[in-house]
Input
Amino acid sequence: MEQVIFLVSLYLGIAGLFLFLISFLTGLRYIKVKAKYKLHKRIGIVGFIAVCIHGVVMSYFYFFLS
Output
């Protein structure tokens, strides 16, 4: 079970990195999206949540299970 949680957290960290990158590039208008949707803000929030979950789980594994 711990291995599954570790792998899910690892993939959340990678996904969060890509979501932040997409959010940054759409905010700078390098990737064009319709302005009325404000898609880059939502992508950024989801990326931030993914990175926070990744950070908490990885900190738990580092400090309490090593």
